């Protein structure tokens, strides 16, 4: 394996279920132990673009929990997320990723010592690149959802933002500090959560200035994925959607995090934006999220849609989505890592709106219809292949 093809992957929330599933899955595909099912970039025409192979990815990460990856993987086997025997077969890859885990930044550190916290992240990322002789690095936030950020004048100007951090005048959550650190070391940054991450004008401007790509926000894995297919279908038939109610129950770390109303608001904001953008008119669309600990790693969503047909006759559509969020998220995460590595190789900078396909609330784009997003993605990936 040539070192210039290797790509560093730094996962914020590196010992979580999504991160563990992704790195185990990458090793399993690379070893020929499983198929890359669910990975868009592993099917034609994307295979022509020269993205890094999954075996070229070198994993590390930050996490505030100390549960070793091997134990997390074993728990995921018990929960039916990973196949029996797979973590044991991939013990060397899991141990290599475990050796690159570092203590994460807490919310308290971000509030009270932002410059020190930022410096520690930069140091860890730089050391990871040097230690593994990596030319490209992709930082991905898969940590717990944060509460929305209160607007501050410094959020709009890079110089003001850095000065405010130095003087303790602006508070940034950990996700934004990770975005800043990624930009400082020349890494791509992806926010797979609805946290603020890089979505502040000052941080986006810094990414442009430092010539690094950004992507986000909030991976589109289940219920919203279905909305992005069904809402355009109703719209193209000229059927008027009157209401679209969603009820979600989930467990695990996500369920516990979203039991906090402030943190849940970030998720609700992210999930609730697409209907009006797709249909072109406001829709009554309440969404509820409930933490049910017994669900573990699994999630169920029930949607109730009322739409109006010819001569005002009202009809209903209901669907239930049941799935394992980590299993749905992991292949998308690996797709994004490969795509951002490609963006780094091409010298792309700033927010990549063409990656809207992967997100509930796509940065840089108001396009939510899945088929249109797929066309955008394909054009972006193949633009230089065709040229």
TrEMBL record:
One GO process term, biological-process aspect: inositol biosynthetic process
Alphabetical list of SUPFAM superfamilies matching this protein: Glyceraldehyde-3-phosphate dehydrogenase-like, C-terminal domain, NAD(P)-binding Rossmann-fold domains
A Pfam family of this chain: Inos-1-P_synth
InterPro entries tied to this protein: Myo-inos-1-P_Synthase, Myo-inos-1-P_Synthase_GAPDH, NAD(P)-bd_dom_sf
Annotated ranges, domain Myo-inositol-1-phosphate synthase GAPDH-like: 222-326
MF annotations from Gene Ontology: inositol-3-phosphate synthase activity
Protein name: Myo-inositol-1-phosphate synthase
Lineage, highest ranks first: Bacteria, Bacillati, Actinomycetota, Thermoleophilia, Solirubrobacterales
